[in-house]
Amino acid sequence: MVTEFALLEGVVENHIDGGLLKYFTSHVASLVDLVPEDVEAGPHLCYGDPGHKHFCEPADIGHLVTVSNGVSVKAGRPIAWIHMSVPRDPGDAAYYAPLTGLTLQDTTELYLGLVHHTGAQAGTEKRIAAAQSARDHFGIATECGLARRDRDTTSGINAQHAYLSDTA
Predict the structure, then answer these.
(1) What residues are paired with 109 via a beta bridge?
(2) Which of 10, 67, 100, 137 shows the greatest Cβ crowding within 10 Å of its Cβ?
(3) How far is the C-alpha of 19 from the C-alpha of 23, rounded, in Å?
(4) What is the tens place of the pLDDT at every residue in 56-102?
(5) Cβ atoms within 10 Å of 116's Cβ, excluding its own
């Protein structure tokens, strides 16, 4: 979904006729609907990860919330989870404020990509506290997985996950 968020953020020129949001949410919902009912499905909403940084720093998590709400309404099957990537720098409550307007299906779990190598455990805990100012319940994850991480950074990231899962 990197291209979609680049369009929504105005980073690249809009080449899609009509409403971007309607187009994107309908498309993602149709992809979710292709997954067999007996398999959990959920989208990873992403701003990319070049150099372990978003392609742009969004002002807040609002576009991710808006797309999640639209997909949640349009999907014809249950969505098990939605994962929102979170940049490594925002630690203030204002960034997460749009989460108060998140309206997912009752069965959908929210995962926020708050666990980063940058800032280590203290940085992750700061991001979690800021997100909790807008939403009580969510799971944590890395921003975009571990596949592009240097091998020497993954043990620290995994240690953060283990520690935080033990304290939850």
Answers:
(1) 81
(2) 67
(3) 6
(4) 678 889 999 999 999 999 999 999 999 998 877 766 899 999 999 99
(5) 22
